[in-house]
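Anyone up for a design puzzle?
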């Protein structure tokens, strides 16, 4: 078995033993990897914050029950005791009084309900928590899109490495055929020995390149597997989604992309929610100037014995209810400080949002220009590939006729491989750039 046959057989065996994976599978798995799950945890934490902010606005019910007893041992008390004389005059004298041991039980039941009627700070805090939850959802979508884009990039890197290895295998096969032809022409006396040696050296160079590319494929497999939270030793085999065979096109203007980003980019939506949260924070701080109103109701039942505590529900009962007004008339300028801090936070949020809009606009422009240039490069690469194929066909026919040397054939082979790799890289770059543009617009996760 020749070297290239052995390498090809090993590559086929590896592919057969590997795990095929499609682009759609990669995108789905990337939405549940470690980065995506961390973002999900942050969003759930924000949801819990909304529940915590809503809790004080709901009725607060407190219930308690108790059962106990008290025992007092024999004791001596000194007390003032009145004495009335026959003439009717009252005098007081101290006497020691012995008190025997005594025991007493106690039973109690209490239920209290408190309802906040008005507190501007609590309502503003709830609005702030809701906006923060919305921001967390937007950040979760942003992180998932970033994770998906990285997964797409690594998938195409693996596909490029696999396809490049295939091209190098084809070049090794061509070099082997060229060496056999050179030997046949030398044996027939139609070519010098130097041509055969040159063909053998070229074959060795191609074999080394093929071996190095095998290591590149393994590195790309490990990179993709790690990102998808799969074992790094898993031999993933990227399946061609069919996008590289078609013609690369660009049908999107800057204005259209900017409109898409304004409506769908999770980062902008998250920053907008943070601005609303900061405004609610100002309202919450300003509520310190206002009073709060609440109502309460209480039921108590107490007794010193099981009867009538447990036997007669009409006795031992007590009810109370009322309204409460609370107003912090002067907080030592604490409210003023809180309002100032909240307004500063609002200013930061507004500046951050405005800068994010500018950054997204700049990112869209770069992405569109990059994609447009890559589309043009892909078209030129396709034209170069057609010319390189024609050149190799011409050089091969002349070599077989004995009219040229292996140098010209080798040069044509190298140019063909370079043209094939260039077209492959340009098409891969187009798809990665297209995915990056979709992520900038916020539409990446919308497509499967």
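Challenge accepted. My sequence:
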């Amino acid at each position: 078995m020749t070297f290239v046959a052995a390498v090809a057989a090993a590559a086929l065996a590896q592919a057969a033993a590997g795990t095929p994976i499609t682009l759609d599978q990669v995108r789905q798995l990337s939405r549940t990897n470690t980065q995506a799950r961390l973002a999900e945890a942050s969003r759930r934490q924000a949801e819990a914050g909304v529940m915590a902010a809503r809790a004080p606005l709901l009725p607060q019910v407190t219930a308690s029950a108790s059962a106990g007893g008290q025992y007092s041992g024999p004791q001596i008390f000194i007390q003032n005791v009145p004495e009335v004389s026959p003439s009717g005059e009252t005098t007081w004298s101290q006497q020691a009084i012995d008190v025997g041991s005594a025991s007493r039980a106690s039973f109690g039941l209490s239920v209290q309900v408190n309802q906040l009627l008005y507190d501007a700070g609590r309502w503003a805090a709830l609005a702030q928590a809701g906006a923060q939850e919305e921001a967390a959802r937007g950040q979760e979508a942003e992180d998932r899109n970033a994770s998906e884009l990285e997964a797409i990039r690594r998938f195409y890197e693996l596909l490029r490495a696999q396809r490049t290895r295939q091209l190098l295998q084809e070049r090794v096969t061509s070099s082997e055929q060229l060496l056999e032809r050179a030997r046949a022409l030398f044996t027939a006396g139609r070519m010098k020995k130097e041509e055969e040696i040159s063909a053998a050296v070229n074959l060795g160079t191609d074999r080394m390149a093929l071996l190095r590319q095998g290591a590149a494929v393994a590195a790309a497999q490990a990179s993709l597997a790690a990102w998808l939270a799969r074992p790094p030793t898993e031999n993933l085999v990227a399946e061609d989604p069919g996008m590289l065979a078609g013609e690369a096109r660009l049908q999107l203007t800057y204005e259209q992309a900017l409109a898409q980003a304004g409506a769908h980019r999770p980062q902008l939506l998250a920053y907008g929610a943070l601005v609303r949260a900061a405004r609610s924070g100002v309202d919450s701080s300003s509520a310190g100037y206002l009073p709060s109103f609440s109502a309460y109701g209480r039921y108590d039942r107490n007794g010193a014995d099981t009867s009538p505590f447990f036997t007669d529900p009409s006795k031992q009962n007590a009810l109370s209810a009322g309204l409460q007004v609370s107003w912090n008339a002067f907080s030592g300028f604490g409210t003023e400080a809180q309002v100032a801090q909240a307004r500063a936070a609002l200013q930061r949020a507004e500046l951050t949002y405005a800068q994010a809009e500018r950054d997204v606009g700049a990112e869209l422009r770069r992405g569109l220009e990059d994609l447009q240039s890559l589309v043009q490069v892909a078209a030129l690469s396709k034209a170069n590939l057609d010319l390189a194929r024609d050149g190799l066909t011409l050089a091969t026919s002349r070599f077989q006729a004995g009219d040229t040397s292996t140098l010209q054939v080798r040069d044509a082979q190298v140019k063909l491989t370079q043209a094939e790799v260039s077209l492959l890289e340009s098409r891969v770059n187009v798809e990665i750039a297209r995915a990056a543009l979709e992520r900038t617009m916020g539409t990446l996760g919308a497509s499967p």
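A detail worth pointing out: The chain has ten helices and eight strands.
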